[in-house]
Amino acid sequence: MALTPRFTRTAAIVAVGAVSAFGLAACSSGDTGGDASGEPITIEYVHRLPDGDGMTKVSDIVKRWNDDHPDIQVKATKFDGKSSDMILKLETDIKAGNGPCLAQTGYSEVPQLYVKGLLQDVASEAKKYEDKFSAGAFSGMKVGDAIVGLPQDTGPLVYFYNETAFAALGLEAPKTLDDLTADSATAAAAGKYVTAFTPDEALNWLAGQSAAAGDTWFSTSGDKWKVDAEGEGSQRVAAFWQGLLDNKQTLATERWGEGFTAALNDGSLIGHVGAAWEAGFLLDSLDGTPAEGQWRVAQLPDFGAGALSGPDGGSGVSVMKGCKNPAEAMEFNAWLNTQVDDLASQGLVVAAKGSVKTPEKMLRQFGGQDVLAELATATENLNPDFPYAPGFSTLSTMNETAAAAVAGTAKVADIFTTAQETAVASLKDLGLPVAE
User: Fold this and answer.
1) What is the model's pLDDT at position 12?
2) What is the pLDDT of residue 136?
3) How far is CA 128 from CA 11, 15, 73, 122, 419, in A?
């Protein structure tokens, strides 16, 4: 996925804003000479990978590196908590001078972390490894001319469905939004749901659907940011979900609450618009039940813009401000993120090039389907013109409006209005120019 002129220009404004508002132009990449005492260099790496049963443990991956690199030892720490909580801890630790050298960061978080001075520009090191990764994923670690680390995984939206339950209703995997609307009515008449509307995931989930519908939320007008979260694509997405909510043809429940898993387990939820990375754990609760092996993954139905998906998550490993050995950190970073089969076992849709073997667990849970091949196609179908802006995380206010839409005190369209208003306010708060 090549960088578009719009993305390049947008990213450049991030860099300009960072320099002018926060004085980051002289941010150095630290000492690359190693430990002069002759002692091994220690690189601290913080991650949020699931490390679940049947997965190659991060500690085992890192041990292989440490065994082969006695002069560059890596200490891996798993952060158990939300991404937003991890970012707050990183900011606190970095300001106190004891932050890690490497940390997992979402692509949507990178621009603001750079603007806030929490990431190092390691472009000279990163370019050594650029050809190992897909262009689209690599661009997620760029902020203007700065490159802050290396990509690890992508998160295109896809469609998960219970093939057996669909067949019983005379349904096939939906190809278009009209198909999904019709399937929703058929399933609801049988007491089942082919989608779940998940307000706690509204931020990334609905933004990704807007991208799949062909929208671009952040672009530029002259030397200013331009925000358009209420475009034609967002309107199509809003109308679709509003219809399902009004007709009670979607399961309205939090994605990370008990209701979602309960509906999955009792067979009432038989379809789900979700991120590709969910394939690694979505069906865990069905292991050993009659539903094991019944589910499949398909491309996201056409939201009106053709064979297009949108990003819902995905992350890289960034070099944090204060890292004293960025060259060595990036050497490990490149090695780690090209251990494709190990990372795939964690449920990741890896950003590194090359074929990846679908793990045994996925083969079993998805009835022998080559899941990772299907997810790789979704990655190729990502909207290439959907960059993020600094302050994107503040759009979590969308989740509150989404909850109100479920309660009937707001409309789904109001969620995108919330995104528009919050994005403009956030950019202004960061001292960045906005076209209105």
Assistant:
1) 46
2) 67
3) 21, 22, 21, 10, 37
3-state secondary structure 415-433: HHHHHHHHHHHHHHHCCCC
Q: Phi, psi (5° rounding) for residue 245?
A: -65, -45
**Each residue's pLDDT tens digit, 321-353:** 999 999 999 999 999 999 999 998 887 899 888
Distance of CA 15 to the CA centre of its chain: 22
Q: How far is CA 249 from CA 35, 181, 194, 265, 368, in A?
A: 62, 9, 8, 19, 30
Q: Which domains are seen in the chain, by residue range?
A: 31-154+314-358 (3.40.190.10), 155-217+228-310+386-429 (3.40.190.10)
- What's the Cα-to-Cα distance from 260 to each of 208, 254, 415, rounded to whole Å? 20, 7, 21
Query: How many whole angstroms separate alpha carbon 418 and alpha carbon 286?
Result: 36
Residue 213 neighbours by CB distance under 10 Å: 23
Q: Which tokens is 303 given?
A: 């939201």
Token reading at 120: 């190092």
Does this model's pTM top 0.90? My answer is no
DSSP state of 223: T
Angle at 201 between CA 110 and CA 229, to 5 degrees: 65
